[in-house]
Amino acid sequence: MSPLVSPRSAGTMIPALLSFFTLSLTSPAIGHAQQPKVAAKATPTEAALDRLAKQPAVAKAMAALQSENEWTLTEQAALCEIPAPPFKEAARAAAFKDKLAALGVQKLRIDREGNVIGEIKGTGPGPTLVLSGHLDTVFPEGTNVKVKREGTKLTAPGIGDDCRGLAAVLATTRQIIANKIPFNGRLLIVGTMGEEGPGNLRGVRALFSGPLKDSIDMFISIDGTGFGITNGAVGSNRYRVTYKGPGGHSYGAFGMPNPIHAMGRAIAKIAELEASTNPKVTFNVGLVSGGTSVNSISADGVMDIDLRSESAAALADIDARLQVALRQALAEEKARWPKSTVPLSLVIDTTGLRPAGTTADSTFIVRTSLAAARTMNVYAPLTISSTDANIPISKGVAAVTLDGGGVGRGAHSLDESYDDRADGYKGPQWILLVVIGLLTTR
Fold it and tell me: Which residues form the Peptidase M20 dimerisation domain (predicted)?
């Protein structure tokens, strides 16, 4: 997951319209805190989820997710200890596929991109829903991924993002199959490749451009920790910008256009770009390089640029102004040395494009996610972020990213941790209610 929204990092949060009051549910697995009743009438979706949680097969599965929580944690740690650096997730994919096979998932395969795909067939006709987690991490090959456990706290790179998501998918799948929970349609269980930065969502892009692209009606990604519902897709445009020249001696060749100076001019212009706050727009020069020595005019100046917004139109606008700034910097550096015949050029390589968009708060998938959180008596805010859900959202498919429960700290850092505390099991419980709710209620 691209770190944008807490607990991943700071970002915009849209308060969810949730009502909190004690429900007369009998299942001990729900684990309600005692709260005073208030005058509020459940919406049809909320009432349907309340009834769903009481159905025998669902209630049994919910109870098992609590009593067998250690199974989920064991799977989380086991997957985390299989390295999955960018573009090298195959070993973790193979293990995830084997675990799904052991649970009884059918039609398991690995597609051309490396995604793991399996199916659970419903008892009657209905929609196709994807339940997924991403297999990759941001950590390079050779990173120590051994999990350290202290009580309820697990520490290792990737333990929350997204080993927690993968474990929650496994736990949910396990209970649906073991308890033969009836539902309509088809549930696709997926482990995706390349969700993190350099992967550019390559796994989910392949999913929505392959044989299944026209059959997926709804999409859920489980990514990260806590209880957030991401229904806003932050788009991003990423570029590697290179100013190029022949280079030369800092004294003997002085008077020629300097690629690093051109890059400096560009950075100054980028720093002065106006960026709106509503919708939120951001820009960043994150990496710079070039040069061989202090007394050489470099042959190149290279920088990596990241632009983001929750609005496709706003992202396009800041991108257009960036392009102008880059070319103005080139022209100004050439004009600075009018007598020079030395060439200076600009190369702009696209390194990542993530589309922006929103699954409306009023859609069935968002209403069901909120209603399930209410039934669970957990607070689930609506948030925006950059996740696998960006792709289906951009294609008009109803999609959200749900957190996997528990408490996470230090995502994308070597000391990343996940704390299960007393109620980490509520994450998979919530996910199960959402999944079955989407496939059985309207």
Answer: 232-332
